[in-house]
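Bug #77: duplicate submission created two jobs. Keeping one. Sequence:
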Amino acid sequence: MAAPKKGRNASAQSKPWRALALILIAIVALTGGMFASGHTTPRLGIDLAGGTSITLRAVPEAGQESAINKTNMDTAVSIMERRVNGLGVSEAEVQTQGRDNIIVNIPKGTNSKQARDQVGTTAKLYFRPVIATEMSTGAAPTPSPSASDGASDKDKATDNSTEKATDGSSPSASGSPSASATTQGRAVTDALKADATPSASASDKSSPSPSATGGTSDADSKLQEQYAKLDCTKPSVRAEAGKDAKPGESTVACGEAEPGQWQKYLLGPVAVDGTEVDDADAVLDTQRGAGWIVTMKFTDGGAKKFSEITGQLAQKQTPQNQFAIVLDDAVVSSPYVNSAITGGSAEISGSFTQQSAEELANMLSYGALPLTFKEDSVNTVTAALGGEQLKAGLIAGAIGLALVIIYLLVYYRGLSFIAVASLLVSAALTYVIMSLLGPAIGFALNLPAVCGAIVAIGITADSFIVYFERVRDEIREGRSLRPAVERAWPRARRTILVSDFVSFLAAAVLFIVTVGKVQGFAFTLGLTTVLDVVVVFLFTKPLLTLMARRKFFASGHKWSGLDPKALGAKPPLRRTRRPAGPVETKEA
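Kept job's structure:
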């Protein structure tokens, strides 16, 4: 008789340790990454860790009901995220809910009143001329308006109808070796008193600027001292910088020059109000090769003011030929100008990516966004209440796991060892991945997510049961254990994949069509369903293959859960030899 062909099944049957080694390496690598990242526990949502949940409802201006749309709501979310981050808050959540609601979840340890004031007010967008700027390093250097002090010319504003945009560069920040502190301070004073803010009267005639009235020496000195001491590397300082400044006054502000690097600014009075921006878009300029640019269109009044201020700034030296786009008292961009920009249209070019260009365009658009937000509800969850909820969820999970284990022990006996080991591997993978997803994508484990993990215990156990029952069916047919394990796997595999696909599809649909905390349930359910497939293929099946070679299971011990007699197995089929020819009988 020919020997059986060696193929994929034979290899998998003879070397199950390969799959076990693979999943062990994955667990060790993920666990190592978890400890290396410093995030050894899953990030908890607001309902478990405690904090404040604010519900804001969008209210359009009269006759602007169509302003409540996805684009405007996403822009508002982006602005509110900047506000919350400006408070130094980490792990906050800002997301839309339904058509006209925004939910802001702020974890414990944050001043809830300050947070409510920040997210509940309408954004203020201003264009202010730059008087001085430099990198903020945490020290208190003497201000200098010279270009060598790190004035950022990353972005350049041009008239997009007449002038070709060019890609700016960002020179490194360094002190001016040739200018003394006294000379630098005098330069800033002259800029404050002279015409660094000539268009303030156009933008806010009711609030004359210090320069318009000649200014006071005490006010200028105080502003210079405030600028010199400004440390934009501290979140609390950034949140307060220029907070109470009036449009007609000079002020200080902070802006992020590069990720993690902060620039501080001394700014003149408002030259153009953000409400004068009629439209702003991020555009990929392929004709001139300028890359991503941001285009702006002003109203008639805004075009006149913008033409006036850019004409005056173009005659100055860096950084006083820059204007700062200030949103919520923070500088989001500081482009420079070479000539007056007329016609009501302008573009900002520089080293933009698509994402950064779209973010700036959204911020510019928000200045004219015809939406305000009304605070519908504020719910405070204490850490004690969150801890009780988490404790209750863990107890429920432990009870569910204990019931599953008891059922497996009673019904499957020795096979329950494989099932429990598989559940532990699945639990370890789930815990480690959730811990890593917190800092990676902002995943937060809330109470519905805990419920999803509890439901997943049953889904995972169901996969083991399907396989075990297929093996037992093969034994009932009279086969020994090792062939039964291999013959049962293809049919069990199909059933497990179909079942898990249906569960994953339900989780995916639920995640897409829902918002808020329900998404946590859907995400956890989908994650654990995928891990169920991984564990069954790389751990449960190889482990059962190995156990089938042990005498305890192979002999069908009564406590193994695979006793042929207890399962009602048929006797093994035996072949009977047929006689070689007819049987002859002798006659008496």
